[in-house]
Amino acid sequence: MQVARKLCGALAFCLLIFSGDGAKADSAAGKQGAIATVHALASEAGLRAMRRGGNAVDAAVAAGLTLGVVDGFNSGIGGGCFILIRRANGRIVAIDGRETAPATATRDMYLRDGKADPQLSQTGALAVGVPGALAAYEQASRLYGKLPFREIIEAAAKIAEDGFQIDPGYFARLNSVVGDLRRFDSAREIFLTQNGDARPVGDWLKQADLAKTYRAIGEQGVDWFYRGAFARDNETWMRSHGGLFTASDFAKYSAKSREPIRTTYRGCEIIGFPPPSSGGVHVAQILNILEHFDLQSMGASSADFVHVVTEAMKLAFADRAHWLGDPDFVPVPRGLVAKNYAAKLARQVRLARASLVSDHGEPERAQQDVFGKHTTHFSAADADGNWVACTATINTTYGSKVVVPGTGVVLNNEMDDFSAQPGAANFFGLVGAEANAIAPGKRPLSSMSPTIVLKRGKPILSVGAAGGPTIISQTLLTIVYTIDFGMDLESALATARFHHQWKPDELMIEKKIGDEVLRELERRGHKLKIVNSLGAAQAVATDPRGKALVGAHDPRLHGKAAAW
Ligand code: GLY
Known about the structure:
This protein is of the alpha+beta class. It has two domains: about 35-255 and about 375-435, no CATH class; about 260-375 and about 450-545, Orthogonal Bundle (Serum Albumin, Chain A, Domain 1). About 35% of the residues lie in helices and about 20% in strands. The protein is built from 19 helices and 23 strands. The strands form six sheets. Strands 3-22-21-17-16-13-12 form a seven-stranded antiparallel sheet. It has a seven-stranded antiparallel sheet with strand order 11-6-5-15-14-4-23, covered by helices on one side. A three-stranded mixed sheet has the order 18-19-20. The longest helix is centred in the middle third of the chain and has 21 residues, at about 305-325. Bound molecules: glycine. Glycine binds near residues 375, 395, 414, 447 and 468.
């Protein structure tokens, strides 16, 4: 039975269609290629790209651009993304399309009377960072795809032009922010009825301006967006609405190639996205800690298992709050993913009792050995051995809610992912310190964790998730369920999830884990926040016999896996 449920509190954005019966994830298998996204039209667009002679990179770019049309409350070219690619030749590429702060941004720009004002960093002109997703998609397509970018974006433009039917999931997300969308004329025109209500379920949503924007990019190239009319129109609107960014901020933007994070876990190689993602660092760090425990003998949904993983999460998130930021601006210690540091942290975990983690740890050579410099996840793979994990976002539902007139592009509110003030929580309840303070041109810290797992050098899993900081926990658990417990992809995505981010001191956990386990966790001192549904992860894996590629979407929402 499918039931729409609203998660409250810090995860209010994460309205999902929840399958509460513990069913396995929906999957599709094929020998030529597989893809999984949160929307049927996006998965089909990816599959079509592969059938037309494209590879997994083309499929991912097609899916990403289509999601910007049909799932625009989560991601789009007004936002950012991280793309992790394992190429057929075995090389790994990490493309950072994270937004940047405008040149005139200042550390204290969201303080009013000495206190951070979340309204300013979450809604309206001041909340917007310079978008990076388009630069990243185009770079991935140009350097690693086979199809012309113009062809891929034209297919997505056609979907924007023809429209699609609003389903209950889309409506729920739209309706949850209807009050804020009313404040912005262009957003109101596209997404609301004449009365200012959310367009209802069954309505056909056409986005003519977005189609026009996609076509202009297709015909004139991404320079039209970053150095042409789009950038100029954005500057004009921002100037008259209190925003900071200018055409020159757009012109300075470039997607960056980064060195991926590599660690090993029980004989597999885990490849994650480096800072400004915190995801790669902390998925690796938590796995390194967990290697010191025999999780298999504990059992996947046991109190011992949840307890140990939670304790590791707390230690990692305490480090996240202190150490993590844009590596082009602050030193992020490589020692965070060192095995010896994990061994030290593992010794702090007590089986009998939840610990009080009062502060961050201190990896070796923390100052010297540093990294060089709402949301959606999709994964794709092809028979040649190209694998993609891409997580994209405009941050919270419909981002800043701003659509600059005539563009159809929903702009992000990624500035809220900076730490507006040391200790002040952002939308997700995350706290940060100096490392993630605002600075001109800096990229806000992210939790997006696109990850690829290799075994004996061959890719076996591409995974990632949506849901702010819970992305790290969902990605981690999918890897652990797969490697430690040998679950197939469908079960790994369906098994109960939990998340602890150090502050607040609260273990968010899915109810389906069972009363007995919940009671035991409480007895050990965990403060529980029991939820019906946690997150949205998509993945592609090889089937256990290695004969086919399997795509699977999270059973907690309506997604689509497709293969051929
Ligand atoms: N905007 C959520 C994240 O990047 O973590």
